[in-house]
User: Fold CRISPR-associated endoribonuclease Cas2 from Methanosphaera stadtmanae.
Amino acid sequence: MVGIYILVIYDIKIERINKVYKFLKTYLIWIQNSVFEGEITKAQYKTMIIKLKELTDEDEDSIIIYKIPKKYLNKEVLGIEKNPIEFIL
Amino acid sequence: MVGIYILVIYDIKIERINKVYKFLKTYLIWIQNSVFEGEITKAQYKTMIIKLKELTDEDEDSIIIYKIPKKYLNKEVLGIEKNPIEFIL
Assistant:
């Protein structure tokens, strides 16, 4: 799948976190508290953005999405790796 | 400065967060809850890793560092941008 590799980091009011977490789990891999990572298609990306806007309050919540070309993904973990991703290249 | 552009995301026990936050602020820009971003030199990177290991407990804490080539940094923010970074190219 030629997709987009993304990292999603959120800082969301407690009352909305669960819904966002459950939604993102359908697309991405949970990495750490408020952090998801994974590869999705462009179409899925668009749908994800629309849904995230529905699930959050733009005046109170913050979501940052980093798009990283997979071949440049360079990651180092100190301490516990809460959810190690096995890369299948 | 030809440095490394990094993203640091941490999930640390409450008793150690303040020290890590104060330390990272000396190198990087606070973006959002438990997230720092910025460009540092290779030497600074090595020093940072050593210091972060000193400040945290590898059996309880988790720090993920993403190294992203600056020209591939592609970021989208939904909602509040807690600490917008002005890129000086």
Summary: Residues 7 and 29 of chain A are 9 Å apart (CA to CA).
